[in-house]
Design a protein that fits this description.
With 340 residues, the chain is of the alpha+beta class. It folds into two domains: 121 residues, no CATH class; 201 residues, no CATH class. The strands form five sheets. A six-stranded antiparallel β-sheet has the order 7-8-9-12-13-14. Strand 3 and strand 4 form a beta hairpin. The two termini are 60 Å apart.
Length: 340
């Protein structure tokens, strides 16, 4: 685009037509700025080349803004003298017209020739553009951040689950290698069984003879995967014992339970202790102590089930007892059909 500063109104029409002819396909001119020659002759207009005269501090210059970047420079007529190499047409005054380029984005063309030029605005964003950008960022963040948080929580859950099963398995194998497994831990009672067969082989922070000592608000704090309440007690005299370790995990070791009280070899791991949600498949996982041809170990509850049986239990409609085994079979990943 081109700014035009003129003093001779008779040249207005001629220069306007000239500009229309020399504008390229984008409607912009490639004229040089102040201190560079501008030659327009014949069908391309009038020959003219001007430079600002050194006014030695007088007020002949009206406005001057960053000439090095071709922004607007506005001088009074008296402030211009012909360049020493400029050629004048006969009968023309060098002060009649000043034609100069002020930048591709000035907004002036032949269409608005003759209007009072305005200062070229500084580059930047308008308030509307800023608000629209912020709105877009907000929408994208609202869509992506929850998913990122959820994925992080899933990875953290798997990592803690792997650590928990490793700790309890190592302690159980050490105990079994040295002392074996009692014929009937149910008859011993959970407290005596724990102190002899577990406590020497595991590093714990707190032994819990009440649910409060393990950080819970009530004796039965757990829910099933489907949201229903579960009847598991954290601590129950002679039937289960709980303790938590330095990493905040709570381990519950059972010797008996059920509607008809009988021997049980189940172990439960709450990977974040008394913190919510206290739900099967989210932070509570079930395991079982077994002895077979491979020796003694702590395995995943449901390890002998089919995939269909496993998926039926570890679902939004199931209890979630087999969710640890489901994660293991999926390659230690929480997949899309997992009841998260």
């Amino acid at each position: 685009m081109v700014h035009i500063f003129y003093n001779n109104k008779n040249l207005k029409s001629e220069i306007k037509q000239t500009l229309k002819q020399v504008q390229h396909d984008r409607g912009k001119c490639n004229f040089l700025a102040i201190r560079e020659r501008v030659r327009v002759r014949g069908q391309f207009g009038l020959p003219r080349c001007f430079t600002p005269r050194n006014d030695r501090g007088n007020n002949n210059r009206k406005e001057l803004i960053n000439s090095s970047t071709y922004q607007l420079i506005h001088f009074k007529k008296a402030a211009f003298t012909p360049h020493r190499n400029a050629r004048r047409a006969e009968g023309e005054s060098v002060s009649d017209t000043c034609l100069m380029r002020v930048g591709q984005e000035s907004g002036y063309s032949a269409a608005n020739f003759g209007k009072t030029p305005r200062l070229l605005r500084s580059a930047g964003f308008t308030l509307a553009e800023v608000l629209i950008t912020i709105g877009i960022i907000g929408v994208v963040s609202a869509m992506t951040i929850p998913n990122l948080i959820q994925e992080h929580q899933k990875r953290a859950t798997v990592t803690k689950l792997q650590k928990g099963i490793s700790v309890i398995n190592q302690a159980y194998r050490l105990s079994f290698d040295e002392q074996g497994e009692p014929e009937n831990s149910f008859d011993m009672g959970s407290e005596a069984y724990f102190k002899k067969y577990w406590q020497p082989y595991i590093k714990m922070l707190q032994y819990c003879n009440t649910y409060q000592k393990c950080g819970y608000n009530n004796a039965q704090p757990y829910k099933n995967a489907n949201g229903t309440r579960n009847g598991l007690h954290v601590v129950l005299n002679n039937l289960r014992t709980a303790f938590y370790t330095h990493d905040g995990m709570v381990y519950i070791i059972m010797t008996g339970g059920g509607d008809i009280v009988q021997k049980q070899n189940d172990i439960f791991i709450d990977i974040n202790g008394g913190e919510l949600p206290n739900k099967y498949g989210r932070d509570l996982f079930r395991f079982v102590r077994i002895e077979d041809n491979f020796g003694a170990r702590v395995s995943f509850y449901g390890y002998g089930m089919t995939d269909d049986e496993l998926n039926s239990d570890c679902s939004k409609n199931g209890y979630g007892y087999t969710c640890a085994e489901k994660i293991r079979r999926a390659g230690w990943r929480i997949e899309k059909d997992y009841p998260w």
